[in-house]
Amino acid sequence: MLYMVHMNVEIPADMDKAKADEIKATEKAYSQKLQRDGRWKHLWRIVGEYANVSIFDVASNDELHQLLSGLPLFPYMTITVTPLATHPSAI
Amino acid sequence: MLYMVHMNVEIPADMDKAKADEIKATEKAYSQKLQRDGRWKHLWRIVGEYANVSIFDVASNDELHQLLSGLPLFPYMTITVTPLATHPSAI
Amino acid sequence: MLYMVHMNVEIPADMDKAKADEIKATEKAYSQKLQRDGRWKHLWRIVGEYANVSIFDVASNDELHQLLSGLPLFPYMTITVTPLATHPSAI
Amino acid sequence: MLYMVHMNVEIPADMDKAKADEIKATEKAYSQKLQRDGRWKHLWRIVGEYANVSIFDVASNDELHQLLSGLPLFPYMTITVTPLATHPSAI
Amino acid sequence: MLYMVHMNVEIPADMDKAKADEIKATEKAYSQKLQRDGRWKHLWRIVGEYANVSIFDVASNDELHQLLSGLPLFPYMTITVTPLATHPSAI
Amino acid sequence: MLYMVHMNVEIPADMDKAKADEIKATEKAYSQKLQRDGRWKHLWRIVGEYANVSIFDVASNDELHQLLSGLPLFPYMTITVTPLATHPSAI
Amino acid sequence: MLYMVHMNVEIPADMDKAKADEIKATEKAYSQKLQRDGRWKHLWRIVGEYANVSIFDVASNDELHQLLSGLPLFPYMTITVTPLATHPSAI
Amino acid sequence: MLYMVHMNVEIPADMDKAKADEIKATEKAYSQKLQRDGRWKHLWRIVGEYANVSIFDVASNDELHQLLSGLPLFPYMTITVTPLATHPSAI
Amino acid sequence: MLYMVHMNVEIPADMDKAKADEIKATEKAYSQKLQRDGRWKHLWRIVGEYANVSIFDVASNDELHQLLSGLPLFPYMTITVTPLATHPSAI
Amino acid sequence: MLYMVHMNVEIPADMDKAKADEIKATEKAYSQKLQRDGRWKHLWRIVGEYANVSIFDVASNDELHQLLSGLPLFPYMTITVTPLATHPSAI
Questions:
Q1: Domain of J71: which CATH number?
Q2: Alpha-carbon distance E10 to G76, whole Å?
Q3: Mutate to test the interface with I, among F64, F77, F79, F82 (most CBs of I within 10 A)
Q4: pLDDT per position as a tens digit, C67-82
Q5: How far is it, in rounded angstroms, from Cα G61 to Cα E84?
Q6: Mean pLDDT, 10 residues at a time, chain J of 91 residues
Q7: Which of I35, I44, I42 is nearest to I84 (CA)?
Q8: Which end of chain H is more exposed for a tag (fewer CB within 10 A), N or C?
Q9: ipTM for the predicted complex
Q10: Could you tell me if residue I91 is inside a domain?
Q11: Residue J88 is assigned to a structural domain of this protein
């Protein structure tokens, strides 16, 4: 079941650089693990922004919330979720 | 080169049904031709809306505008284009 | 799996009254059938508006879109869907 | 008498973790007491957000404000209240 | 129990003048009846707009919706309802 | 001459509690003095928000600005003013 | 007493040209009469828009509403009124 | 003196095709005349929209309004004007 | 050449009071000098807000930007500029 | 391939002045290097704002994101990118 997820990152300007780097590294590993197991199907950067558009493929709303709220950057992101359905013209 | 495209369809309530059906049929054929040649990579319905989210893969801004403005439903849609780049965490 | 759905109805001012009445009657029957089978769990009127807030309980995004796009008033409504998850403090 | 309440939580990034944990624990107990006495009828998490949608069943506007302004997280939330009425098609 | 109600009137430009005049006359009588029985406590015009701000005093959300949806101009208005509570500094 | 005034209070999370309490006490006395002399005609709390809707009755725009900018909480509020006129259907 | 008034004109595309010309001519005479008697102090066109920014000098909210609602183009305009006060740095 | 101008075209769906074609042809000639004399310096299509972004180089606000309000499509466009100044880092 | 300028002041709550007072005094002197030489034609306070509406009369976009960016409060203001033209009905 | 880029700068009020000056100097050099090699074709200041409108000419979405995310002021800017195409009336 597919969802489009828009994530906008807003790390506070006064966060310690070492801490920020550690969160970003953990985020990257977390993200790549989910990409490898097929649940984070697509991940694209929006040009000019510290933001991404992603497509998730999960079994339920609850599973999606568990994945998103577990993101190391979750406390510093504004996330919008759009549920997707099959389009009748899609091949 | 990837772009996310959001299309919202607003066919006038007083359009002749036969005309509307013909436009939709032409739209479907147009869309599937582009899906088959790989330029319209993904096409999803937004749940509860007469709208879609799509991913296009084209060589230039001009090519994308040519494809979108050629859509049979173009006069009846509000389209928003978001250019996408490679995400550093994407695998 | 739960979703909150907001529906705002905008019937064109020049629609024939008999036609409007027929659509509303069909809508009511359609809605009550879904309420009885448990998929349209809650249906509330927003005070002062020709709009409602509903809770749907369905198995998938596709099933929800099929139900919503089949609403007799679908062409005359603006619908917004919010996927819901279990809240950790809910009892 | 029913109301839909949307609560968006924005705890300051620099709040002491122990203090934040204590507020959240008090909030959870406060919420569950109201759920048990039937005034906080439904509590759902919005997928991907630190926010919830709730349904309250209270006797008056004043009672609802007393409950909401007493929430331990009240100073850190943006709350929107929508009064609900019986829908003529509800069964 | 008090509610602030904002009503914005948008009568279609092509409505027959006789019909519009009749609706407005019925609206006026309807409004004054509610003002006299104390449920429509205040009614003010917003300067420069075909809109009003009103204060209603009713027993429930359902009663308010019944009154508002019964307005002769209801099909031609955008209405927003804000529930009010006692302010701790009010005398 | 009447004006509707919407005041939304946003006291900084890190303000010293003693200072905040003092400002609020001064605000309350200031507000009640104006209510008693008839210029602050109505004061209502918006349910679920740290905000109020008020009706002022003053002789001029300048007098209203003098009253509002003198509010002890003025530096911490977002204020919107709507000038009101007599409604032709008001009794 | 001064007010800034923003007027945006939206004449329906299908209005008879003779009727539109007559309304505009009446509007011009009406406006110039008010400019001459000093109540419509300033009238400027917003570059690129069928809109204006104006400054009115009237004795009360009621007088302003009477003037604005009497504009021949009133049914075809969206008007926003901002009450102005003396600025402490104005000379 | 430079201005950025955003023009969004909204031709009514029921306009006669011959009339629309004639307006568009006149618009094109009008635009190219201004481009040739150097006052309409740049004209770009926004990808996916019936809209453009333009740069005008004129002597005054009045001259710009005269050019824009003379556009054959002016009655069918929403125009936004942004005045530009020299950037200190521009070479 | 006239421009309407809207300035909204947002001085950080934690700015040293002496520093704030000095900036405001410099701002006042700066503003009055421009009012005296005729380039800052009008300056009005918006009722209930720490904001103003002004009319500037300058020779070019560049001159206006130079004046506005030189305001002592410039780093603490949100400014919006609207270019004005002669209105055909102005006398 | 052209893109319009809108950049709004928001440097934190408490940033050390020496650090801010250094970032701005690096930004200027970075910007001028790109202007000289032809990829940053136009750079204009928006009158009254700490913001600019720019036109970039690059080979791909990825190249544009690389340039923009490399801006020394990138962490302190809100950037919006609009892809542009050839306009059929452009000469």
A1: 3.30.70.1060
A2: 10
A3: F79
A4: 999 999 999 999 999 9
A5: 26
A6: 97 91 97 98 98 98 98 97 97 93
A7: I42
A8: C
A9: 0.96
A10: no
A11: no
